[in-house]
Fold these 3 entries.
Entry 1:
Amino acid sequence: MYVYQYMMNQQKAIKLEQPTRNWLDLPPELMANILYRIGVVDIFESAEKVCTAWRKICKDPAMWMVVYMDGSTDPNGRLPLDKMCEYAIDRSKGQLVDITITEFDYAKILVYIAERSSRQLRRLTMARCYDIDYMDGIWTKALKKLPLLEELSLYETKITRRGIKTAGRYCSMLKTLKVNQEEYRLWDEYGYREFKAKKIINDRVAMAIGQNLHELRHLELIGNPMSNKGLGMILDGCHHLESLDLRACFFIDLDGDLGKRCLQQIKRVKLPYDSLEGCPFIYQNDGMTCDADDE
């Protein structure tokens, strides 16, 4: 009993001796790393209002070289999300190199990013930005201003043939392109014959890539409704491809010579019926099925 009481008293004494840590004493670079992880909305709505030191860190352009903006967030605050995104871009003062925006129905943000990044942007990711689908000139206007772009990743966000042509002309550093869609989900509803009848099968994007993006190293076209014709154009035009993702591209036939050529020409190929697990913004645990009677 006495031993137990002695040990308890010692533990209390040790706790009392431990100094209280002051967050303001943390090195600025460590504090910036912590603040970055809480997200753009919480920085604007809360963190930068805590104290002068935090506000100074939050205004440092280095804090905004990488931006992740989720448009599905509703902060119920003083600023609408599109304005928050613009402020985040402005705070980078031209140092923005990597930006991801999701669920934005504000197509002009793409041009805003291009104009305010001072041609330094290397990586652009957009997910579920549907409004851009209907504004053909937006891609052309934006991509002309992004000569150093190396990676363009689109998830349920479409790019036009004109946009791909612009990328081929002005984005000479582009090595990675992802145009991943969820159109494969319609397969279960319609089947192959209905897809073909509804003219959902098309090679426009695939052909534009093959004709204009000759320096690509990595290409993802998940859910693309291309046929063998479109795939052939890619193989003809993109001789430097090291990886090609054809998951959920159900209208290509790789059993013949085209399939052999594809596997011989490209080091890493993901096939139409390979699992989508791990694919951001696209994968769901509902599986992919295809009725053999519809093939």
Entry 2:
Amino acid sequence: MVARRRKRAARESDSGAPTLPGYSAIPIKFSEKQQSSHYLYVREHKVREGTKSSWPQKRTLFVLNVPPYCTEECLSRLLSPCGSVQSVKLQEKPELAESPKEPRSKFFNPKPVPGFQVAYVVFQKPGGMSAALALKGPLLVSTESHPVRSGVLKWIRDYTDSVPDPEALRVEVDAFMETYDRKIAEEEAKAKEEEGVPDEEGWVKVTRRGRRPVLPRTEAASLRVLERERRKRARKELLNFYAWQHRETKMEHIAQLRKKFEEDKQRIELMRAQRKFRPY
């Protein structure tokens, strides 16, 4: 335990902030009333040689341990004294390599409950990033001129923002369906062009759609399919008719047997009643 405490004390800086190798610590406070400080850990964003990145080199600041109440606007305002901020991007975890992504829908991709996040801050000039690495703080997130909502007010704002605009939702759904229909039409056109066409080696590509093989798209083939379905349906109706007729015949036979049984019982009773003793 003593060794662990000594190791932890050795990792603390002169200002009392715990340090991370390769990162600079920037203390921040939610407001003036808050006594303890929260620390942001910042460093220059770098990627491995040969790896593509959408974040500009020498101008991007990578920030760790961003609290939930610190929004992109707050982070931009805190770092604006260092230089003009071009953009701020908050996300759940860092990305090793940046690649172009399709825009996500704000209606059909619900936002997760925000926790501690990471941020990519892009400055207009490299000097802004260097000045941010030298910040001492503490910086105030919520001030009189720029108050940050918290508690019930924040919950009300989040709920209000979560209610979608019907017109905006309709526009996005229509745009999605148009894109989907265009994609399906292009795939069908491409499949029709490649159908039955041999490749360079003379092989013909055979494809399957769903569980049934692809039928040739000709009028004769369509007529044959319709005729086969009609015969199948007629045969099924005929079998059902024969089953009904067989069932009715069996019921009539059982009714006749019961009627004959009752008549035999009555005749036997009559014969027993008319029987007399005749010795001569």
Entry 3:
Amino acid sequence: MGDYSKDDFLQLIKRFGAFLTVKISNLFGTLDSRSVGAIAGLAFAIVFTWRVWRSPSPQRRLPKRQGATSSSSGVSNHASANVATSGVIPSSEDSNAQNVIDEFFQTVKPTLGQIVRQRLSEGRKVTCRLLGVILEETSPEELQQQATVRSSVLEVLLEITKFCDLYLMERVLDDESEKKVLLALENAGVFTSGGLVKDKVLFCSTEIGRTSFVRQLEPDWHIDTNPEITFQLARFIKYQLHVSPNKPERTAINVFNSTTLEQFFGSV
């Protein structure tokens, strides 16, 4: 019944509006300002009444529930009220979207090649001692018995040869030691997998000779285990890496201390 009365009232308003339109169009030229104002006021009143009629009636407030409720139901009602008030409903789609965003912006771990280039400060030429750095042996006397390439440093060594002009050098006591060193490097794949050639493996009979090699080559980086040599070369070489389990007593400003070569290139 209410809907039927509402429809009749709307039809009546439409008909009356059409009637006013015709009358206004016919009499607009003859009406004075007072008549026009009265008609405009009547139209405004009709429109206002129509809008009030269409507005939904306010919902009745529900009476408050009496009686004590359990703590568990109170917590659940409170949580439901929070969700209803905020209008935020968790969904699996939102969770999946957040996971995609997290994966996209997660920190990308740098590759070993990127670490090597960053550590070497884009240096193009590197000289490196063999004993204690590339080889397991630590003295020329041990090289007379055998030469063993450290497997843990091999990957770093190959990465250095990709980006830098690398020269390896060592002091030996005889020609047999030289052959053992070259054979160990060859068996490790240094000459085939990397950019190193046998002509860039230099041998000398004294420590002064090794220092002379470094100064003549003028590298960007020099890697050594002897603190005396790193100290002497500090005036001529921009960057040096001193590989030693113990911190040397004398160091230069541009000398870095590290336990092993692979630890130096192991993290950024």
